[in-house]
């Protein structure tokens, strides 16, 4: 159940101006109940500690519950009316911290019964303000993908209104892994985002190789986000300031101080 995914990521903005880019990176796919034990086996990896690569509970869902990611995710799901069996297995697909610095624009949780039957999928989206919002999926479409179309109610990008819709299509982690998250406005597709990935064994040797193949991964992610935003601004793509649409930013974890101010 523990592995790495080598990913090709593609983004394409369709309107108001065409703008597309691609890049390659990797993600961890780990059983959250065995993180500490896994970290002891893999050189260069830690759980809740500094290392070349680390996975830290503080970067993920936080409902104020003791017990790490598992307890907090199950508490959030219960609040959404989704009850899971006590022995539910949870796989997390996420970007690691690198040298203590982390930024996860999106992570994914896959929940399975003890026998391996899929129960649900959750997308955990984080913006550059470090706010977080979770979206759950319980339905599978005819292609075998977890699917949900839902209003964002989240300020992900200044070039994407928080009142737009996310259309999630998440494949199950296997030898190949597929993700599509498209953005719609008034029924029209505005932005395409996709991940196409292939499974790789999680070994100390491979992880150390990725240190050089994908140097400073988390720093590169945040740099790419700001670089592409600059290109869109230079091209004159209209943008929305965060404070302008506070009413459309709801049910967030770690809300930014701008959302706590009184609306005049």
Keywords:
single chain, 264 residues, eleven-stranded antiparallel beta sheet, three-stranded mixed beta sheet, 4 helices, 14 strands, 37% strand
Helices and strands in order:
Blueprint: E1 3-13, E2 19-31, H1 35-41, E3 45-47, E4 53-55, H2 68-79, E5 89-94, E6 97-98, E7 106-112, E8 118-126, E9 132-137, E10 139-140, E11 146-151, E12 165-170, E13 176-185, E14 188-200, H3 204-213, H4 217-234
Parallel strand pairs: 3-4
Antiparallel strand pairs: 1-2, 1-14, 2-5, 4-6, 5-7, 7-8, 8-9, 10-11, 11-12, 12-13, 13-14
Strand proportion, as a percent range, falls in: 35-45%
Mean pLDDT: 94
How many E-type strands? 14
Low-confidence stretches: none
Overall morphology? globular
**Estimated radius of gyration:** 18 Å
Task: Write the H/E string, N to C.
Answer: EEHEEHEEEEEEEEEEHH
Number of domains: 1
Biggest sheet statistics: 11 strands, antiparallel
The end-to-end span amounts to 51 Å
Q: Helicity, in percent? A: 10-25%
- Which structural class should the secondary elements be placed in? alpha+beta
How many individual helices?
A: 4
Which strand order does the major sheet show?
A: 9-8-7-5-2-1-14-13-12-11-10
